[in-house]
Design a protein that fits this description.
2 domains, 5-stranded parallel sheet, two-stranded antiparallel sheet, disordered C terminus, 44% helix, 293 residues, disordered N terminus, TIM Barrel, alpha/beta
Length: 293
């Protein structure tokens, strides 16, 4: 598909001297966000590291590419979270396709191997602006935005999310969804605030209330994101798994190992209650890292 070749062009910019402006389809925000993440991990100061991480997230979350935001004089608009140091990096990338500032910081940090590992992990990630561009492209042969009917992986206040189930339902219905699933973490993943089965029962009551309110217009499902342990087993009993409308299975540990994880994933997928395998590689788009738990 054409967009796959486009993403390859972006990776070429990240790894080599290609000019950003010379790329027919370039995710310039992802390139800039990636360099800012590299700069963050090259810092010895935690304060500076978090500052550059915030700058990277600000760029990755923009609705438009940076090249479309430039003024007639080439000046960047004020972007929340972007300071003078980040602006310098952005200007370098827009003008040359790379950042000498970042590369120098990486060399001085002696962390190049770790930063390169992070670069490899973020391959094929798209910025918000690029996702919006692709979805709006009439030549794109995938689903259009108005064809989406639901979302089957979301976390609420019941584990490590912050919205209530009512807020999730209202937001999804407002997008024209017909259904959605709240899939909070199961109790085995304490680091993510996994729900106990008692809490899951209380959440069920809240979801039932949402469905009464919406009637036939929208349905909220109670799902769960079960943890896959190192042997491929879930952190739910067979009986507990049947209490949910949909069960996702996801690994949260041993993801930095080199050994083949296929058998582990296949065993989890063989569970009769599991319908979806979630983030099998554990990559996090906002941090270009891996899920660990």
């Amino acid at each position: 598909m054409r967009h796959q070749r486009d993403s390859n062009s972006v990776r070429g910019v990240e790894r080599g001297p290609d000019k950003v402006r010379a790329t027919t389809y370039r995710d310039v925000n992802a390139v800039v966000g990636g360099y800012l993440r590299d700069l963050a991990f090259a810092q010895s100061s935690q304060q500076k590291m978090f500052g550059y991480k915030r700058a990277a997230n600000a760029i990755l979350s923009l609705d438009q590419p940076l090249t479309d935001l430039l003024g007639p004089d080439g000046a960047l608009p004020r972007i929340t979270g972007i300071g003078p140091g980040s602006t310098r990096v952005i200007r370098e990338i827009l003008e040359t396709g790379t950042s000498a500032t970042v590369e120098q910081a990486i060399e001085q940090s002696e962390r190049r191997s770790d930063i390169q590992r992070r670069r490899d992990l973020r391959r094929n990630f798209l910025s918000r602006a690029e996702v919006r561009r692709i979805l709006a492209d009439p030549a794109f042969d995938g689903p259009a935005v108005d064809e989406y009917r639901g979302d089957l992986q979301m976390h609420s206040e019941w584990s490590d999310g912050y919205p209530t189930v009512e807020e999730i339902a209202d937001a999804c219905a407002g997008r024209g969804y017909h259904y959605a699933a709240v899939t909070d973490h199961s109790y085995g993943l304490k680091i993510a605030g996994g729900m106990t089965m008692e809490e899951a029962a209380a959440q069920r009551q809240a979801i039932d209330g949402v469905n009464v309110r919406y009637g036939d217009r929208f349905r909220l499902l109670q799902g769960v994101e079960a943890n896959i342990d190192t042997a491929g087993d879930l952190d739910l009993t067979d009986e507990e798994a049947t209490r949910f409308d949909v069960v996702l299975a996801a690994p949260h540990s041993r993801l930095r190992k080199d050994e083949d994880q296929t058998r582990r994933m296949l065993k989890a997928l063989g569970h009769p209650a599991v319908r979806i395998l979630a983030h099998p590689r554990g990559r996090i788009t906002g941090s270009f890292g891996q899920v660990v738990g």
